[in-house]
Amino acid sequence: MPRPWPRGPGSRRYLPFGLVLVGFVAIGWVFGTRVHAIRQVEAELRAFRAQETRLHDEIEALRRRLAEATLPQVVEREARQQLRWGFPDEERIIIMRR
């Protein structure tokens, strides 16, 4: 037959220590998860700022292209390259390889 746990004043002396230990673990877990969440948000913020910088640079490049798009030589170059247009008196030579 197993021995019963001792009852009396000595059996409860570990209870406050256990409660304090559980309290410290709970506080550590709460603050640890908050620190982890703050670090994740900071990393996302850095990524968004880098993306914002790239987008601002791209917007500036597009604005420069738009400003120069009204120049006649730019319009002619784009028409020749993208639309394959040319003047009526020009002949186009197409080389096909087998």
Walk me through this protein's architecture:
This protein is mainly alpha-helical and 98 residues long. It contains two helices and no strands. It has helices at 15-68, 72-82. It is rod-shaped.
Please compute the radius of gyration using only Cα atoms: 37 Å
**How far is the first residue's CA from the last residue's CA?**
97 Å
Q: What general outline do the C-alpha atoms trace?
A: rod-shaped
Helix content: 55-70%
What is the tally of helical segments?
2
| Largest sheet entry | none
**Uncertain stretches:** none
Main structural class: mainly alpha
Number of strands: 0
Beta-strand proportion:
under 5%
SSE order, as H and E?
Answer: HH
Mean pLDDT: 87
Layout of helices and strands:
Blueprint (H helix, E strand, L loop, with lengths): L14 H54 L3 H11 L16
Quick synopsis:
By secondary structure, this protein is mainly α. The chain contains two helices and no strands.
Keywords:
98 residues, mainly alpha, 2 helices
